[in-house]
Amino acid sequence: MISIVIPVYNEELILPKLLDRIKSSMQEMDQAYEIIFVDDGSRDRTLEILHEQRTAETRIKIIEFSRNFGHQAAITAGLEHASGEFIALMDSDLQDPPELLPLMYEKLKDGRFDVVNGFRDARKDDKRRRWMTKLFHRIFTEASGLSQIENTGHFSMINRQALDALLTMKEKTRYIPGLRSYIGFRQTSISYERQERASGESKMSLTDLFGLAADAVFSFSKFPLRACLWLGLTGVFIFLLAGIHVLVSKITGWAPLGWSSTMISIYFLGSIQLTFLGVLGEYIYRTYKESQDRPIYFIRKKYF
């Protein structure tokens, strides 16, 4: 059986179209499947529409959160409740086409691969968001050293063995594409053009995307700490040269103007120290969050 995990948040406008396209795609495969919707505290008619659809389609399963816990928590809940031998993960906005699910299944069913990622070779969404996403993927790939991550998102299909490995990682600050790459196994990809959102507005603001990017980088890389180290060493080198210059000027009788050089030194060193404190604070916060060991979500009710 194939489990299709879809987190949803305020998607009343898009759900009927999403379900029609999923059912149409799955008919091509003649394969048993289930669709697990995780309602992440929606405030519109999303949950009501899911119940209406479920009366006509028994393969729909619903997990209702007690409140909004975030995209990564909703994905995790869906993966933990999936019962299929193959598990597909996709967002609800139809930017990632359900029509690719049969192709992903074909690559997995013969056992040659364990993970199939959707590779975005082109995008039709907002130019600013497209540029920022591309920049993040490039930085994250270089910083983390993980393969199969650049230009890939959540859209993917994995087998049960890969899912079991992924679910053994229990950290609270999660970035699913990074975890999926980290587990290894035999991975491949399918290229596609990412479409514009089918209806409504994106539920992830640029601030949310920046937060997700920060979680990804701080969770998988020591790059921020290494950058601080190099910045500090660069500052030491610059001011070593500046000290030599001041000493030589004193000896030769040509003393530099005091106020400007002093203020520049203070501002430069202060900026470096604040940067260091900010980076260390990010790591300390995430360490504190892990030590609390709180569940990353609570379920109000399940409809299985």
From TrEMBL:
It comes from the Bacteria. It holds the Pfam family Glycos_transf_2. CDD domains: DPM1_like_bac (cd04187). One of its GO terms (cellular component) is plasma membrane. Residues 3-166 form the Glycosyltransferase 2-like domain. It is found in: Membrane. Its main location: membrane. Keywords: Glycosyltransferase, Membrane, Transferase, Transmembrane, Transmembrane helix. GO terms for molecular function: glycosyltransferase activity. The chain crosses the membrane at residues 228-248, 264-285. This is Dolichol-phosphate mannosyltransferase.
